[in-house]
Design brief:
This protein is α+β, with helices and mostly antiparallel strands. It has twelve helices and nine strands. The strands form two sheets. A five-stranded antiparallel sheet has the order 1-8-3-6-9. The chain has a four-stranded antiparallel sheet with strand order 2-7-4-5, with no helix packed on it. Helices cover 44% and strands 18% of the residues.
């Protein structure tokens, strides 16, 4: 594929690891509202107006308190306890959605994002139209309101993810597949791997997708993504394996889908990467004890 041909960096990920939004709150914030990590949800908040004070009582990577004085998107991709407070004369108005990432903490997108992305609404191009429709739906009750609001929230999330792919450093994204997808050359190799994880991916073939030599590709990949191409491929396959196991897909079919010679080879690779057999992992995940 020519380097001049645009590629879709997001669809392959979101098709395999869905993110579902559910309208949680809309309107004025009265007093303090707590969003507890134990509920197991991520959150996407839209601060429409007012001065919002945010507390992170148990967070290690975030300030204990933050304040936002302009319309802002606040994305918490993983469960993290946070509290919103409406100070005197704050006039805080919010529209919020709960987010469920397929696979929970194992979802590669949720894992790649920082614990909080806080972004003024004006920074994201094209967001105005989506938010106008969202607020139109949430400001008064109509038939199908909640379903439509949920879908619009998912559109807003995709627009935010687009922005993150183009501005990973500004958002505080650590090395990983998001920073890799922000690199025009590496993105072509990553999208190809995402779309066809079961194919035989040699270093030469990956480098060819990126239009680079093997040595240059391997070095750039380590610098930008933070791991070797082979390790990234193994992690992507294991993320897909966990997702498919949750869906009830038999390991015999998974082996061929993910590029392993037989189920035993997949089981060995799974145990080496995850620390337990697919059967043991699935039992833990079904019991709700998987991290």
């Amino acid at each position: 594929m020519s380097a001049d041909v645009p590629i879709d960096r997001l669809s392959g990920i979101l098709e395999r690891f869905r993110v579902r939004a559910e309208l949680h709150h809309t309107g004025a914030l009265c007093g303090t509202q707590r969003f507890d990590a134990c509920a197991g949800h991520g959150y996407l908040h839209v601060l429409r107006r007012g001065r919002l004070q945010v507390a992170h009582p148990h967070a290690r990577e975030l300030p204990r308190t933050m304040r936002f004085d302009e319309p802002t998107l606040l994305l918490y991709p993983r469960p993290l306890t946070h509290c919103f407070d409406d100070p005197p004369a704050g006039g805080v108005d919010l529209t919020c959605a709960r987010l469920d990432f397929d696979g929970g903490a194992c979802n590669p997108l949720a894992r790649a994002l920082p614990p909080l992305v806080a972004l003024p609404l004006a920074r994201v191009s094209g967001l105005e139209q989506s938010l106008e429709l969202l607020f139109c739906e949430t400001d008064r009750v109509r038939c199908g309101q909640r379903l439509l609001a949920d879908r619009i929230f998912e559109v807003v999330l995709i627009q935010l993810l687009r922005w993150l792919l183009d501005h990973p450093r500004e958002a505080g994204v650590r090395p990983g597949f998001i920073t890799g997808l922000s690199d025009p050359r590496l993105a072509r190799a990553l999208v190809a791997i995402h779309d066809a994880p079961g194919e035989a991916w040699s270093l030469q073939r990956m480098a060819g997708c990126a239009g680079m030599s093997r040595t240059a590709f391997a070095g750039a990949f380590r610098d930008v993504v933070g791991q070797t191409p082979a390790d990234y491929l193994a992690d992507w396959r294991m993320a897909l394996a966990r997702s498919r196991l949750r869906e009830g897909r038999p390991i015999k079919l998974l082996a061929d889908e993910l590029g392993y010679a037989n189920p035993s080879a997949l089981s060995r690779a799974f145990a080496a990467k995850v620390g337990m057999s697919p059967r043991a992992w699935l039992a833990r995940a079904s019991a709700g004890t998987d991290a």
